[in-house]
Amino acid sequence: MLIDVSKAGVLESYHMLVDVVTPRPIAWVTSLDREGRVNLAPFSFFNAFGANPPVVIFSPLLRRDGSKKDSLLNVEATREFVLNAAVESLAEQVNLSSKELPHGTSEVELTGLSLLPSLKVRVPRIAEAPVNLECIVRQIIPVGDGPLSANLVIGEVVVIHIDDRMLAPSGRVDPRKLRTISRLGGDDYSRTTDLFSMKRPS
């Protein structure tokens, strides 16, 4: 198969991209609108991109009609968000929070989850998630302006909350305890339970 992106449809390119760029970690983002209402949504265009300062980037795509999602509108308005760990025990809630709801309706209520206050941002964090990253928006970079176009939300991590039960004796996070999930193509997800280790070359 060969796809010339300049000749392919947007959806064809999107589907092939998410089918082959795998696994993709999930940014499970809480944000606030101007009225203080909480939004919760998962994004699989996400990763960590630096450590000094700690930087994460997630990308809320424009909807298929070209409009902005609530999460993007919220971070544009408040310049804050929280990343909550998408873990196997909360997989159903992660998936449910992707549902399109009327503007101003909170996915937190839909999923039955609860909130805790953050320390340095106004945005609350998901109490049931074993890790929460409080973030300040440093920059938002639109890439394109049509349906499914990217918006790179660059966030500086200012506080990291980690449930002590997720730690190994070394003090590092144990992936066997954290058990994050990630996105593949279509309706498929993967687990971080089939692990192997290799020493980095010296």
Automatic annotation (TrEMBL):
Which top-level group of life is the source organism from?
A: Bacteria
Q: Which organism is it from?
A: Singulisphaera acidiphila (strain ATCC BAA-1392 / DSM 18658 / VKM B-2454 / MOB10)
A Gene Ontology MF term for this entry? oxidoreductase activity, acting on the CH-NH group of donors, NAD or NADP as acceptor
Protein family (similarity comment): Belongs to the flavoredoxin family.
Cofactor(s) this protein cannot do without: FMN
- The name this protein carries in UniProt is Conserved protein of DIM6/NTAB family
Gene3D superfamilies found in the cross-reference section: Electron Transport, Fmn-binding Protein, Chain A
- Statement: the UniProt record of this protein carries the keyword rRNA-binding: no
Q: Where is the Flavin reductase like domain?
A: 20-169
Question: What keywords appear on the UniProt entry?
Answer: Flavoprotein, FMN
